[in-house]
Amino acid sequence: MKVVQLVRKAKKGNKKALLELIMAQQDDYYRLALSYMGNAHDAMDAMEEMIVSLYTNMGQLKKEEAFYSWSKTILVNRCKQMLKKQQKVVLMDEWEPAPADVHNPYEQKEQRMELQEMLLLVNDYQKEAIELKYFHDLDYETIAGMTNVSIGTVKSRIFQGLKKIRDQYRGETHE
After folding, report:
1. Structure confidence at residue 21 (pLDDT)
2. Domains in the chain, ordered, with CATH?
């Protein structure tokens, strides 16, 4: 697999290989950082810090095939550190997901507002888990590593959050 070969080269100090790995997933990194940081400037700063950290810590990566989940975990940790320094909280209602491939901008805006409204029903841990799973398409194991909880806790947060949303909207339709 090409990723494993590039990671091996990057571990030996090959900057081009590391850059190629990062560029292959740059949009995913950016969306992930933006969802935490809330604005493009801070998202780019977090990505920059992640790249420096990747370069200096490549030797610590044990499984080459786990590069992307490892690097995304580093990015999330950088974002959380930056937010802590800034004493800033990013609310999901201020976050705008990447635009979907929708031809009608009014319909797209309405869908975004509905998503934001739904996420107001769940707690911050549930929001984070739901966002990482469904907005960033990450697996449970990766989310568990990023949030420093067990896979069972991640699954529970997602299940309970979605149940809250589902119950709320079922209740509204039957009233």
Report:
1. 93
2. 1-90 (1.10.1740.10), 106-175 (1.10.10.10)
